[in-house]
């Protein structure tokens, strides 16, 4: 193995995999899990007849990263290696790709789609694969696509069906699953092992080498005192109290403290209650209260003007959309207080002390002649924008040579980065053109980001896995890991809890590793049998729920104005999109729309076979965002609807809300272009 460049601790963790066992490699971020997996794949290809290796990742950008950084450089000279993601045409004949390649790197969704697709060119059987490598395998739980794949595997295993692929999982931390006592943490680790049908391995004999290779940063809690006065925040709270009074809440309804995540949960539930009860005043007031609470949270983390701008942007979008007295009251309340809020937000006397602390931390690490790289982790995309603007406008930070850029998740929305933008940002960071990434959680795991001198966690409350992943980014010698928090705040408490849970994870893994082979196998078999039975019960319940009502009995209501805009029978499925095919609802070829208006053009970073994105759409009456149009087969324009933007009216005249289309209580049929063409298009073309 030495000629491959493995460290002793890597040789130790792959030992059982080289014997054909299913294992999970547990090594910290920066410990070289992927390199170890490449070596296992190499030996597997050399020794296994008709070997077929599939590498699964949970994010699209990791397909290219693993291909170009690891598998192609080390195996490409001897083996045929392919990569497939939702962006490339190979996904449409994935079965053929699998047959023609020795190693295939793909997103987990691609493989799962192939397992359940019956078309010969697209279909793949697990028995076609001899080694299945699962990156970031701690995500193999609940209804994740990793777990759906492994559920197929476990079902076949329990039925005695063979052959099945060898499993190799990679993780920096399986976590405790929220458990805070050792026994429950052990149960969680065992559940991950059962889901992957694998034992978890770590280095025992080369711990000192691992510690020498993977440097732990110096951790500091950079604490600031609470503002002695906060007139801007106090003014927001007085406005929220006025909204409470307007709502006439029952005396037994007790909401949590303004400016907390708990209060946000309360008003989210109030909005749902208002929709269910057709109480638009309650629902709308709750929505606006959430905006004010968001502003309080921003005021606690960022600058006061950031909080003010978030409200200003929201109310500008509401301009001219008033339907009744409640809308007039809510819009009027902001407009009456707008000038005073702006005045308070521009008073530097009461600025957020966390910003001064953050400036101090950055100035210590960056400066003339210092070759530093850093990542500033924050909670939301909005935060990354605000902090990036602040860095660009801060004279001291610019003089220190800080060259910052945002890094957020790629996705199918106007506010998302494209895959290309994300790759460019990381490339520039690696080259040194940029030296500070202002990032959401997307930079915590998976991305090939160079080792950093500084990692700052700013206004974050996350679990122990995210904390470990973020800390692992500070791998340079003498690096710093900073937690910026308010004295007595929840961030410090959460960080200490996560430190405890990180230790607990290690103890739980050690406990699992100390089990006898027979005891471990017995426990794994029990958990697998139970999981399959539980999943069957849940599937039966979902099927029963989907057939509870006929689609024609369901009405879709705009979630904001509660106007009925479509029948459930109007909704059809194209891939994972749910479109409305009723010509009264949408534009077919002509430029008219009955119920909605169009907005900005959608930007989606990948190409699709039969459609392309169009404009965002929103309710013509209240401007509630509903989704976006698609242009199908370059011929028809169809509205793709997000179910979270609607309420469902079910018999007998009751309202309900669901988060995802899979939770609707009726069956949504597949879209048939032929039927659609016959029913709608001839008349429209006449």
Plain-language structure description:
The chain is of the alpha/beta class and 686 residues long. The strands form 5 sheets. The chain has a 7-stranded parallel β-sheet with strand order 3-4-2-5-6-1-7, with helices on both faces. Helix 17 links the parallel strand 10 and strand 11 (436-439). The longest helix is centred in the last third of the chain and has 30 residues, at 517-546. The chain is globular.
Pick out its properties.
seven-stranded parallel sheet; 686 residues; 21 helices; 44% helix; alpha/beta; phosphoenolpyruvate carboxylase, domain 3; 4 domains; Rossmann fold; six-stranded parallel sheet; 24 strands
Quick summary of this structure?
The chain is 44% helix and 17% strand.
- Radius of gyration, taken over Cα atoms and rounded to an integer in Å: 27 Å
- Under CATH, the topology of the largest domain can be stated as Rossmann fold
State the CATH class of the largest domain. Alpha Beta
Poorly predicted spans:
586-592
Helix-and-strand structural type: alpha/beta
Q: What's the rounded overall pLDDT mean?
A: 90
What's the CATH superfamily of the largest domain, by name?
P-loop containing nucleotide triphosphate hydrolases
Total beta-strand segments: 24
Morphology call:
globular
The domain tally reads: 4
Largest sheet: 7 strands, parallel
| Helix count, DSSP H or I runs of 4 or more residues | 21
Strand order of the largest sheet: 3-4-2-5-6-1-7
CATH architecture of the largest domain: 3-Layer(aba) Sandwich
| Percent of residues in helices | 40-55%
Strand content: 15-25%
Measured between the Cα atoms of the first and last residue, the distance is 72 Å
